[in-house]
Amino acid sequence: MTTLLIALCGGAGAVSRFTLDAEVRRRITGSFPVGTFVINVLGSFLLGVLTGALTHHAGCLSPTAKAALGTGFCGGFTTFSTASVETARLWLTTGKSEGSRYAVATAVVSLLAALLGLAVGRLLA
Fold first, then answer.
1. Which of 3, 22, 68, 116 gets the highest tally of CB atoms within 10 A of its CB?
2. Which residues lie closer than 8 Å to 91 by C-beta, 6 or more apart?
3. Is position 78 annotated in a ligand binding site?
């Protein structure tokens, strides 16, 4: 049952990622992959909130629900592999400088979003 729920939530996360990325691409054009950047930052924040809240209320969700939301939805929503390919694409098409800025910005801002999410999750708990 756990595997099925992780798969379903992972699918929902992937569909959410696809939809949000398409909407961002429709509104913002350019070589910088804004959609993937926003998705990874938002996903880091969401997982931080979930983790922060559950740290103080460990029993409020079953292990299956935690895995479905964290591993499933957040894992399906965020995308390290796409960020890696987009970094490589930027290196090849616009130069290593822009690719490096994208990689560093993704890592740093996603980390800050996770820290903020942990703090918000603790406040919500």
1. 68
2. 98, 99, 100
3. yes
